[in-house]
# Entry
Amino acid sequence: MPRAVNHVASRRRRRKIIKAAKGYWGARKNVYTIAKNAVERGLQYAYRDRKAKKREFRRLWIQRINAGVRQHGLSYSRFMHLLKAQGIDLDRKVLADLAMNEPEAFKSLVDQVKASA
# Structure
C-alpha cells in the first residue's frame, strides 16, 4: 500500500512561506528551507519592533516637548508636573504635535501653566 501524503496541504504550506519571502535577496526568496528561516526571523523582528516602536515614539515626543518648553524657560519634568497639578489631561503625542506644529497654542498652554505656579 503506498504511503498517503497530503500534497495539497504541504504545497500550500510551502507556497505561503515563499509568498511571504517575496522581495528577499538571492536564495532567500525561492529556496524553501532558506526562505523559511528568513521569514521566521523576519516575523521575530516584526514582533520585537512593534514593541520598540512604542518606546521610540514616546522618547521622540518627550524630546519635542522638552525642546518646546525650554524655549519658554521651563524644564520637561516641571512642565509635566504643573500640567498634572492643573488637571490638564493632554497626552505626550498631542503635546509634541502642538509644540511642533502649533507654537502659538503651545506657548499659551505653557503660559497658562506657568501662571498657576
Summary: The radius of gyration is 26 Å. The first helix runs from residue 7 to 20. The chain has one domain: 7-116. The domain at 7-116 is CATH 1.10.1900.20 (c-terminal domain of poly(a) binding protein).
